[in-house]
Amino acid sequence: MRERRKLNVEELNRISIEEFRQVPKIPLVVVLDNVRSRHNIGSVFRTGDAFRVEEIILCGISSTPPDAEIHKTALGAEDSMSWRYFASTLSAVNDLKSRGYTVFSIEQTENSHSLEKLRLDRHGRYAVILGHEVHGVEQEVVDASDGCVEIPQYGTKHSLNVSVTAGIVIWDFFKQLSP
Fold first, then answer.
1. Does 34 fall in a domain?
2. What is the pTM of this model?
3. C-beta of residue 151 within 8 angstroms of C-beta of residue 165
């Protein structure tokens, strides 16, 4: 039988927060549009750290670090990840577009692109917007986006948890954008 001993933290050779800040990131910004759950926010920070996301932008009612509930799921990733806060998600979108980002709302809409068919330019810069747990991405934000992307789903439910959606989307963008 093959050995399957779990690796300890030291054996994983993780980089320090200082080193993380210096390494190249994938050209992806994650925008949280009025996400109310601080556990979801913390999970997005942790996933962003894992896949070297460039930045997280928190908008509207989304809580910001330092926060004990965010820390509970981020486990320190709120210290390594670059983040900003905007009172208005639309202002964040306008800022990103003015800096050359292609902005996608992760939302089920008419003419949305299926994530499995989305092809990214390795030299492009992207932002994805994840919305409120019940109401999704605000319509005015959807309208301001360059497009919408949805995750195909085959069960009885029409949506996924914000942190699960973030993990799927970030992983897919990482696979396409990482060197």
1. yes
2. 0.95
3. yes
